[in-house]
Write a structure and sequence with these properties.
Strands 2-1-3-4 form a four-stranded mixed sheet, sandwiched between helices. It has one domain (2-129): Glutaredoxin (3-Layer(aba) Sandwich), CATH 3.40.30.10. It starts with a helix and ends with a helix. β1, α3 (55-67) and β2 (72-75) form a beta-alpha-beta unit. By secondary structure, it is α+β, with helices and mostly antiparallel strands. It has six helices and four strands; from the N terminus they run ααβαβαββαα. Mean pLDDT is 85; it is low at 1-23. It has helices at residues 2-25, 32-43, 55-67, 82-93, 111-120, 122-129; strands at residues 46-50, 72-75, 100-103, 106-109. Bound molecules: glutathione. Glutathione binds next to α3 and α5.
Length: 133
């Protein structure tokens, strides 16, 4: 009797896991949006996944301009695949908000984290790793 209950429990957990996987958390870096993200973060020292309508994104872009950071800006609301790219960014980085900022191929977070990196002086160190001036 207890063995039967245990088996049912495991089956239930497996089903739950599969349905969570189907609800948008799947990471497929071979998908078109996965290949796009990989290509952009590998070929640019600083990449900002942004939206033109987003005030946090504006703050990040303004700071880059102010301190002379040369950033590749991708405006997701100007792309047909913007939602797919944003969903995948959410799965990769743990947050699906914009901006999502990558330096030297790694996500450093959103605007708050980017501003903090600048204030602490760590931003300059990260930028130096990939030669951004
Ligand atoms: N704490 C985050 C806040 C970012 C945020 O709330 N962004 C808004 C737009 S300004 C967002 O992503 N909303 C959902 C969406 O646009 O899909 C940061 O500093 O980056």
């Amino acid at each position: 009797m207890s063995e039967r209950v245990l088996r049912l429990g495991i089956t239930h957990l497996e089903l739950k896991f599969k349905s969570m996987g189907n609800s948008g958390s799947t990471i497929d870096m071979n998908s078109p949006e996965g290949q796009f993200i990989t290509s952009e973060i590998q070929s640019n020292c600083v990449v900002i996944f942004s939206k033109t309508s987003c005030s946090y994104c504006r703050a990040t872009k303004n700071l880059c301009q102010k301190i002379g950071v040369n950033a590749r800006v991708i405006e997701l609301d100007r792309r047909q695949d913007g939602s797919d790219v944003q969903n995948l960014l959410g799965a990769i980085t743990g947050a699906s908000t914009v901006p999502r900022v990558f330096i030297n191929g790694k996500c450093v977070g959103g605007n708050s984290e980017f501003q903090k990196l600048n204030k602490s002086g760590k931003l300059a160190e990260l930028l130096a790793e990939c030669g951004n001036t």
